[in-house]
Amino acid sequence: MKKPIIAAIALILGAMAAFTAARWVNVAQHTGPKVVIVALPIELGKAITAEQIKAVNWPGTDAPQGAYANTADVVSRIARVSMMPGEPVLPGKLAPKGATGGLASIIPDGKRAITVKVNEVIAVAGFALPGSYVDVLVSGKDASHQPFARTVLNRVKVLAIAQETTAEPDKPKVVNAVTLELTPHESEKLDLARSIGSLSLVLRNELDTGEENSAGVRMSDLMYAQSTSGTSSSTTAHAPASRQYRGPEEIRGTSRQSVATP
């Protein structure tokens, strides 16, 4: 008889705990601060519509810093980044008030956008997408008309491919122009680099923030070192030494001896 009573008491206590928790969550959802969140996907560079956002009570008492409480403060603003449903709309994700949209609205302060022509090989076969990071190489000839290749810019962000600022990562697209995000000084370096040779983009891991300070390569770095006589040193070092002829020999097992000629 004791076991059924204990079980009944446990069930009652469990039900009371569940009721209390549900009531607490319900109260928290209805008493938390209002926060504007994304309801439908938002593309960068586009104006936000009323259907794409909604105001909800944020769980707890601390709302995300800078979060908007009224949808009217967000409607018609230009998105600087893409946003997915459920995330709060924060000031850093929006272009300044008065922005008209397009590429210019997503360029950060102090940065510039410059477009370079590429082909399907140089643009890493279409895998350089908006948001990707690339290194920029230049190949050409120096003052002595000797060919060279060198990295001139490290970890440059791709803003757009062709006229598109968004792309599907699993569907690479071959284009003939890529727009890069640069500082004014980097823009000058890139403009000079493309005037002396052809440019190549090297795709890199987006988490790799290292900077490569390479001296570049020249034709001599691709060839074997040559000796002063013009013969390959590697060939000379491995050439077998010639043996002087000593007349006829007789070989028995592992021994060798000269044989006198009649």
Commentary on this structure:
Pfam families: RcpC (PF16976), SAF (PF08666). Residues 225-242 have a biased composition (Low complexity). InterPro entries: Pilus_assmbl_Flp-typ_CpaB (IPR017592), RcpC_dom (IPR031571), SAF (IPR013974). Residues 225-262 are annotated as: Disordered. The protein is of the alpha+beta class and 262 residues long. The protein has 2 domains: 34-104, Type Iii Antifreeze Protein Isoform Hplc 12; 107-224, no CATH class. The chain is 20% helix and 24% strand. The strands form 3 sheets. Strands 3, 4, 5, 6, 7 and 8 form a 6-stranded antiparallel β-sheet that branches. A two-stranded antiparallel sheet has the order 1-2. A hairpin with a 5-residue loop joins strand 4 (133-141) and strand 5.
